[in-house]
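Collaborator request, handled under Task 6.
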Amino acid sequence: MSNEPTLSDLITASNLFHDLGPESVEAIAKQMREVKFSSGQLIFSSGDEGREVYLVAKGRVRLSVLTPEGRELSFAHATEGDMFGEIAMIDGGSRSADATATTAVIAHSLNRAAFEKLAQTHPSITQALLKFVCSRLREADQQLEAIALCPIEVRLARFFLTAARARDPDMAENQVEVQFVMSQGELALLIGASRPKVNTAISLLESNGALKRGNKCIICNVEALEDIAESA
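Structure tokens returned to the collaborator:
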């Protein structure tokens, strides 16, 4: 028997719809359709017309923007259970960022017309959307503050703490192993730094005992990472 999550499981676990009841979840699931993207495929570009929001079932999607100088700045990665593309779907405007599959991706899409009909019959969906948008704004503010004010090692410590909390929400253990298949180039884009500086900062965190690199994983020393994350 397969242990893979069902579409309803993914919706329930998603960062947008996790507070919804079973009836609303099933209604959403009926309106979603499966889509697939190959590694490196551009899913949409900034400025494109946006009609759909996506729920990732498998794989990883990079969300990025171009600075006025032409430099790509990655501000988030969407992985299993994450939603992306919600802004343009909500307001009917153009896409505010590029979305690129960094691995093979399986996702489920929900178009704007279907979402609006669901929101009319399930008020809890609108409430969930408002909470989600507010959390996105808070995350964006925190990320901009970190890039502007914090040293790279502090940004990295906060990044890996977030990953550790996702793996072990209760932080029951001081040593948390998290899967890590992202390249240093991708990580550099995500925290707003160059690849060589990220490599140097990772080595510094290792020398301080905050991290230990394994085979496709990072072992996080939660206490040490918290000390570094709070030092700025």
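The cover message to the collaborator said: "The chain has a mean pLDDT of 83. The chain has two domains: 7-147, 150-229. Please let us know whether this matches your experimental observations."
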